[in-house]
Structures
1.
Amino acid sequence: MSFAKFLAVLASGAFFGFGLALSTMVSPEVVLSFLRFQDFGLMLVMGGAVCVTVLAYQLAPRLLGRPVLGGQFAVRPAVLDRPTLVGAAIFGVGWGVCGVCPGPAIAGLGTGNWAMLVALAGIALGAYAQGYLQDRKAP
Amino acid sequence: MFLSLFPTGWGHYLVGGLLIGAGVSLLFILTGWVGGMSTVFTSTWSWVSRRPFFQHARFVDTRAWRLVFALGLIIGAGIWWVWMGPVGGLHTDIPLWQLGLGGVLVGFGARLANGCTSGHGICGLSSLQMPSLVAVLTFMATGFITANAVLYWGGH
C-alpha cells in the first residue's frame, strides 16, 4: 500500500467514524431504541449514507474509468443463498441483544466507551467461529 | 407527526449519515475498494491463524487496508469526542453480558452472511443488489423481534 493510499483509506475511515459518532449510532441505546420503534433516526442515517454512496458507486466507474489512486473499481459480490439468509437472521438477533454492529463497535473505542471492547471481542470471537466451522465443513 | 418519529431531533442523524456515505464514497473513488466493516473481523485473523479459511486471498490481500480503515474509524470518532463529545467519554448502561453475547452472534452472523449494516446496508444497497436488500430486511426483522423480546424479558 502506497503512502497516498494509506492516507486516503485513513481519511475515508475518519469520515465514516466521525459520522457514526455524530449520528449517535455508536450508542447501543440509540440503536436499540430504533429496534423498539421509539426513534426512527437510524433510517435517516442509513438513508443519508446510501444517498451519497449510490451516487459514488454508480457514477464513479462511468465518469472516471479507474480509481484516482490507481487500481480497479471493485464490485461487491452478490449472492442470495442459504448462508446469506441464515447469517443475516443470526446477525439481527445479535444486533437486537446488544445494539452494536461492526462499525460502531470499532468507532465506539474512539469515543472512550470502553464497554465496547466487550462487544468488539465478541464480534472477533464470532467471526473466528464462523471461519473455524467453514473449515470443518469444506477443508 | 414527523417530529414524534425523532424525539431527539433529526439533523444529527441526517448529517451523520451523509458523512458515513462520504467516507465510503471517498474510499471507493480514491482506491476502488468497497468498505463494509465486518470483513476486517475475519481478515485480521489471517495474521495469527494458519487455518486455510483465513488464508483466502480475499482476506490476506485486503487485511492491511481494512485495518487502516478501522483505525480511521477510531480516529474519526476520536475527533468527534474531542470536538463535541462528553469529557469523560461515552458510557453505556447495556449489561456486559448483552454486549458480549450479542457481539458473538453479530460477528458470526455478519461473516456468514458476508455483510453487516454497512456491508449489506450501505455498500450492498448502493450497488443496487437485490441479495443485500433481502439481507437488510431479514436482519431488521430479527433485530426488531429480538430487541423487543429482550425488553419484554427484563433486559436493557
Note: DSSP finds seven helices and no strands in chain B.
2.
Amino acid sequence: MKKILLICLATTFFISCKNAEPRYFSSSPEIDVAKAHIKAYNEGDWTTWMSHYDDTAKLSHNTLDESSPAEVLEALKGLLAGASSYGFTDKDIFYEMVIDDKAEKWVNFWGTWEGTIAANNQKLIIPVHLTAQYVDGKIVEEHAYYDLSEYMAVMQQIESEMVEEEEVMEE
Amino acid sequence: MKKIFLIGLAAILFIACEQKAERYSTSGPEVDLVKALLADYEKGDWDSWTEKYADTAKVYYNQWDDSITVAQSLEGHKSTIALLSSYGFGEDVIYEKIISDGGNTWINFWGRWEGTLKENNKVLVLPVHLSVRVLDGKVVQENGFWDNSIMQTALEEIEEMKNTPELEKTIMANHDKMVEAWNKNDTEAFKAITAANVIRNSNGARQANNQSEYAAMMKQFHTGFPDFKVKMESYFLKDGKSYLNWTCTGTNTGPFMDNPPTGNKMEIHGYSVWAFDSNGLAVQEDSFFDNMDMLSQLGYTLTPPKAN
C-alpha cells in the first residue's frame, strides 16, 4: 500500500514538474532571431532586419504611440544619417526570453549602442533596452527604451556651430 | 531500499521542479519590494524609499559604466520633481521576477511615467524600464532606461519661451486658438483673435473680406463635414507672419457648397501664411491647397472640355 502511495506521489511530482514548463530562457530560437536582428542592424542589412517583423508588427520606441517597422526604420535611418560608424558592442549585452502569464513569448535585450557623429567625430555611448514579443518566430510587438538627450545635444551643438560659421562667412 | 529510492526520486523531482518553475514569476516578496519602492517614489516618502536600498547599492540611469549612489539618485529625483505639479506611474505597469544564469534575482519593470510641468502645464509621458537586482530583501542595483531628451526638450521650450518677446507669445497663443476655433466652428473665439476686416485668400483668390465672411466659410466646411478637423503639422514665425503646414480631415455627410453629401472621407494637406498686427491679431490668411485633390477624394470627376 505504502509502495503504491509512494509511486503515486512520485508520479504526481513528475506530472506537476512536466506541467511546470520552464518560463525563463537564456537561449531559444527566438533569442537567435533577436541576435540576428541586432547583427542586421549593425550591418545596416535592412532587408534582413525587416524580415524579422510580422507584417502587422507594432513598434513603440520611447513613446506609447505605435508605428510600423517601415516607419521605425525610416526614423532609425534618420538618426544614423549623421553617424560615421555605429553598432551594438559585445560589452554589456544580455538576451533572455520569458513566457509571461498570458503565455506570450517576450525576448528582452539590454545592450550598448556606440556611435561616432561624423560632423565632429564625437563618440556616443547609449544603453538600450528592447523588449519584443515573438509569435511563430516573428516580432509582433516591440518596445524600446533609450536616452537620446546626449545625441540631441550633440546635434544641436553642430547646428549652432554651422549657423555661426555661416554668419561669419556672411560678414 | 526501494522505498528510499522512491522517496529520493520524488525529492529530486520536486526540487528540480521547484527550481525550474521559479526562474520566472510575476509575484513574490522581491516584486512587492519594488512595488513599494515605486509607491514611495510617487508619495515622495523618501525615508521609506531610501530604506529599501542596500547601503552600497549602485544606480545606473541610462548608462552602464558610472553608477551613482542612492543619495545622488534621490537628489536627481527631487530636482526633477521640483519642476512638476504632479508625477507618477499609472496602473498600467508590468513587473516580473527572473533569476539570471548567474543566480541573481532581478525585478524588471515597465511603466508609463507621466508628469506635468509647473511652468506651462505641459504633460510629459515617458515609457520607463527599470531592472532592479534584489538581494536579502534590499535593492543592490538599479538600472533605468528612458528617453531623457523628452524632458530636456520641454525644459528648453520653457527657456525659449522666457526669451520670446510678448508679441510673439501672443501670436503663438492665437495660433493655437485659431486651430481650436476652426475645429469647434467657434465664431466668437475666431472673432476674438482676428481683426474685424480679416482677409482670406484661397489659392490666390479672395474668399473673405471680414470676420463674418470668414466665419461663414468656416461654417460651410462644418456643414459639409460635421466631423471636420484641422491639425497644425508645423509652423515657424518670422517678422509677424506665421508659415504653417496643416492637414484637414472630414467626412462629407452634409451639403457642401450647394452639392449633396457624397459620404466620402477627405484628407488634404495645405499651407497657409498668416499675417498678424502689432497686437497679435490675425489680419490676413493666404491659404494654398489642392482643391482638385479634395474634390477627387469626395468622388467628383473632371470632365474634359468638348472639342471645338
Note: Chain A touches chain B through 45 residues (CB under 8 Å).
